[in-house]
Specification:
Elements (H helix, E strand, L loop, with lengths): L4 E4 L2 H6 L1 H5 L17 E5 L5 H12 L4 E6 L4 H7 L5 E6 H11 L3 E9 L3 E3 L13 E5 L5 H10 L26 E5 L4 H6 L4 E3 L1 H7 L8 E2 L11 E7 L6 H10 L2 H10 L5 E2 L4 H19 L2
Parallel strand pairs: 1-3, 2-3, 2-4, 7-8
Antiparallel strand pairs: 4-11, 5-11, 5-12, 6-9, 6-10
Helix pairs in contact: 3-10, 5-11
């Protein structure tokens, strides 16, 4: 299995890595259109997963060559796409994309959905919520996951909020007197270390794998089938000018093939939930989230 890979490890790499700027997908095209004769440059943070290997092989069978650009962080793939150094990326959910577009005044556009990955609570050597009262739970402190983590604890009956139906609550929105646990915001990458110390923690799937934690060992997870999960639908994203590109549409179709889905199920150990929503619905959700983000930023 031959896999083309370009590694970009940080913000500086967006500008300095020659492979990103040497590819011809934008160099000779007008108005940022994707050159149909060049490989599609797709950015991700997960290229090491089996699903991506199967995805690339299936794309090649359909006559689409991929140049997969792997990033070690979540901040640079959107910059690379916005700057024209990628054609499409696949690493983020709609809420993360909304925060980027609102903050950067960008027009990055969802063109297909992939899955919702439940966010879950883990507690080493425990298989239930029994005994968790009085504990401090580590939650990711980034703007796109902190509110979701607090809502996970709310769904589990562990915290009460001062207001109802808050999509993006902050620790200050928790009614501490009425709650069974407290929260300690930490960098998402440190949540697995907190877990290793024997403390309960909400951990993103990416860090579970790196720490060798079985995602099925969670003691509670949110429900991807509920409307509250819509902001966390993972999506293929491109620039608005390329949202109707036929090859990108084909990539979305390939992702939902039986072979890729089976590999993705193995990667997630059965925890990810496939989502196949049309692009116009994804855009409607994104528009709503961007508006909410801008309103929150203006308060």
């Amino acid at each position: 299995m031959s896999i083309r890979r370009t590694i970009a490890a940080g913000t500086a790499a967006i500008i300095s890595v020659g492979a990103l700027t040497a590819c011809g997908a934008y160099d000779d095209a007008q108005d940022g259109a994707i050159d149909e004769n060049a490989p599609i440059r797709i950015g991700t943070t997960d290229s090491q997963k089996e699903a991506w290997q199967v995805f690339e092989d299936k794309a090649k069978e359909e006559g689409i060559e991929l140049d997969i650009v792997d990033f070690s962080d979540y901040n640079t793939p959107n910059d690379a796409l916005d700057q024209g150094q990628l054609d499409v990326n696949l690493f983020q959910h709609l809420k993360f994309l909304a925060a980027y577009n609102a903050g950067s005044d960008a027009d990055l556009t969802p063109v297909g959905s992939t899955e919702v990955i439940p966010l879950a609570l883990f507690w080493k050597d425990h298989d239930s919520l029994d005994g968790i009262e009085g504990q401090s739970v580590a939650i990711p402190n980034d703007s796109t996951n902190q509110g979701r983590a607090i809502n996970v604890l709310k769904q589990a009956g562990l915290v009460e909020l001062k207001g109802e139906s808050l999509l993006d609550p902050a620790p200050s929105d928790i009614d501490t007197a009425a709650s069974k646990v407290s929260v300690t915001p930490v960098d998402a990458a440190q949540s697995s270390a907190v877990y290793g110390e024997g403390k309960p923690a909400i951990i993103n799937n990416s860090f579970l794998e790196r720490a060798g934690i079985d995602p099925n060992s969670s003691i509670y997870a949110d429900d991807p089938s509920k409307p509250e999960a819509e902001p966390y639908i993972n999506v293929f994203v491109t620039k608005a000018a390329n949202k109707d590109d036929e090859r990108i549409a084909k990539l979305v179709e390939i992702w939902h093939s039986d072979e890729v889905q089976a590999a993705n199920d193995r990667d997630s150990k059965g925890t990810s939930v496939s989502v196949d929503r049309p692009a116009d619905e994804l855009q409607e959700i994104l528009d709503r989230l961007v508006e909410d983000q801008k309103n929150a930023d203006n308060k």
